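FORM 12-B: Structure-to-Sequence Request
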């Protein structure tokens, strides 16, 4: 199983963003994870499409965009043309989830559905075969640096069971509070993609941390 690491730019040093982008370009990181927040779905505001456009100019790695916004269906075209490769929308924010999924696919992006810690994954049973990723939030979304919610391990198991039962090819992505020890356990328990921010960018050698996250045993 390939282990995918998607460092979250929410934890990068924005005063030296180009430096951090270049560091990730030269690292074993697979994707760039960018969180979009609107202060309505979550109580924080973060990047927009212009930010993604500038990041895209300086990297050839996929841009993994996580929309923590209300009415994401209104912005799909904008995120396609600013450079998003993967677009995750929240189950909790989509009234017409099927329509939103197919709209993202029509624009040629891979599609993920994110679920908050309190949202049971069985609610994805009718769309699991139509999506590329399930994004499990292992913290309450909105702020970096939170503690990992350990119930996520059971949720990961439930997600694997649903994928197998429905013969889906969806990959499982986990986001929030992930350190080296937790990364190892998540990969061992079936996660495919990990989003990490603080653990990577707060370290004096971020490339080494990314490398260690991809090891079989830590």
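FORM 12-B RESPONSE
SEQUENCE OUT:
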């Amino acid at each position: 199983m390939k282990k995918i690491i998607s460092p979250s730019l929410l934890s990068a040093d924005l005063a030296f963003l180009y430096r951090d982008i270049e560091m990730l370009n030269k690292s074993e990181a697979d994707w760039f994870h960018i969180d979009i927040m609107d202060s309505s779905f979550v109580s924080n505001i973060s990047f927009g499409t212009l930010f993604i456009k500038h990041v895209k100019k300086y990297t050839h790695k996929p841009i993994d965009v996580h929309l923590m916004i209300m009415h994401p269906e209104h912005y799909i075209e904008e995120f396609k043309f600013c450079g998003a490769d993967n677009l995750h929308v929240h189950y909790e924010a989509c009234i017409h989830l099927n329509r939103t999924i197919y709209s993202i696919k029509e624009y040629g992006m891979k599609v993920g559905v994110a679920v908050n810690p309190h949202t049971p994954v069985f609610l994805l049973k009718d769309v699991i075969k139509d999506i590329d990723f399930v994004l499990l939030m292992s913290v309450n979304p909105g702020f970096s640096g939170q503690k990992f919610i350990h119930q996520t391990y059971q949720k990961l198991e439930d997600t694997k069971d649903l994928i197998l039962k429905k013969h889906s090819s969806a990959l499982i992505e986990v986001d929030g509070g992930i350190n080296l020890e937790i990364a190892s356990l998540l990969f061992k328990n079936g996660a495919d993609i990990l989003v990490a921010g603080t653990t990577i960018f707060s370290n004096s050698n971020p490339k080494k941390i990314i490398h260690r996250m991809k090891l079989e045993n830590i």
